[in-house]
Amino acid sequence: MEEEQEARQAAVEAQLNVLRALFPGLLEKFARIGDPRRPGSIRHKHTVLLVFGILLFLFQFNSRREANRELTRPGIMEVLRAVFPEIERAPHLDTLARFLERIKPEELEDILGATVRKLLRSKKLQALLVSKCYVVAIDGTQKLASTIPFVPQLLHRRGKDGQEDYFVYVLEAALVGPQGVTIPLLAEFCENQVNEDDGADNEDSQEKQKQDCELKAFRRLAGRLKELLNKQRLMIVADGLYPNGPVMSICRANNWDFMIVLPAKCLPSVWAEAEGIHQLEPKQSLANRWGNRQQYFWWANDIDYEWRDAEGHYHRQSVNVVVCHETWQEKGETRRTTWAWVSCASFNGKNVLNRCNKAARHRWGIEENFLTEKRCGYNYEHAFSYNWNGLKGWHALMRLAHLINTLTLLSVALWETVQTLGKRGTLSFLRETIGGRWLDISRLTMLRDRPAQLRLVI
Distance (Å, rounded) from C-alpha 375 to C-alpha 184? Predict the structure, then answer.
């Protein structure tokens, strides 16, 4: 019992150390958000409201009701007050829900990006660099679906049964690294614009309205990403939806490198010229052993690609293509697959492995990030509010909590526990410890006098 109590004490102290390292900056940014409530009716500062919103996702509660029940327990409140004495009592999360409905969700969404930017400037994430660039994976996913249009901003489609279905779709950007690390960065909601003159309830006007889509959201996300990380060298990695002229032009205009998946039937003129160059230059190839897979790369540089914009104007740019054929043994059978990417940077025998295996292949990290947020306790597909601003605000708090948990699991002090229990096991272990009677509160109080340091294993 003594050994387990000491292990739990050390684990919670490591988690609280990460919180103490991040919370001062978060509270400062939260304080800049205007409070729309009446001053005479305020019982809890809005900074405290937002902190408890993060705690809902940090401890992976399934609903506001469960969070209200668990976060008001004496054990948890005693631990929180020991480290953060400014927390006097727990607010009801319905108060936070009403607050989120009345503020601009962009203010919360930008706080996540500003927190990651601070980590980059302090070189905490320098190990994620590939070819002197931070790799940013971009992809979209459905957040939730409904048969009821609870807000006019919802996208809609007609199902197989002829019924109109409504859904929320989000385009997200995340930092990915060759170590398998994924850091949430930005989110851009696809939303239909509401024309108040036509009337939000007019079905005919909604049918005539051209819907928002992932590529339109990418243009907005690119502007925010450029403003956020304008001094960082970035490499954009994306799936087979993105190899087109407008996307590549945006990347070039922002001085971003890119490695975008090139499907077999996409950009036929580029494919034809790449295969022709490969026949003329067979030496532009490389064989490599990667884990249990045998890889064969070939590439073609300086391919002219022409495309026409929406106004009918033609544009030309030079692109480069790399193809990877892989073979491996699985259950006594030989398996084969082929990958292809289009890039703005030319390929050679010195950079092809870094660009493909350490950067482009880790685009899958954002897919795993979606699975983590949907299936591993963050309730990605739970709206938490049917108000559009409120829904986006809860989503931003969820991603902030995911960032904090990611950094907690990568902290040096907790790494041995993570190796033993796994990520979900470690988070459950911490939640059980804080909610139980395992901790020496006097030791937690002493943490306030120590400088908080964020030390990561990457």
Answer: 16
**pLDDT of res. 195:** 65
Same domain, 244 and 348: yes
The pTM of the full predicted model, rounded to 2 decimals, is 0.93
234-238 and 257-261 strand pairing: parallel
Does residue 401 belong to any structural domain of this protein? no
For residue 170, what are the domain limits?
106-375
Residue 189's beta-bridge partner residues?
A: 170
Residue length of the chain = 458
Looking at the domain assignment, is residue 170 inside a domain? yes
Tokens standing for residue 83? 């480290």
Q: What tokens appear for 67 in the block? A: 């969070």
Contacts of 231 (CB under 8 A, 6+ apart): none
- 367 inside domain: yes
Task: List alpha helices for 335-440, DSSP H.
Answer: 352-353, 364-375, 388-409, 415-421, 423-435
Report how far residue 163's alpha carbon sits from residue 222's, in angstroms, rounded to the nearest whole number.
34
Give residue-wise pLDDT tens across range 20-56: 999 999 999 999 999 999 988 889 999 999 999 999 9
CA angle 330, 335, 336 (to 5 degrees): 150
Quote the tokens at residue 329: 């043994």
Tens of pLDDT, residue by residue over 191-207, are 998 765 544 444 554 44
Judge if 96 and 210 occupy the same domain: no
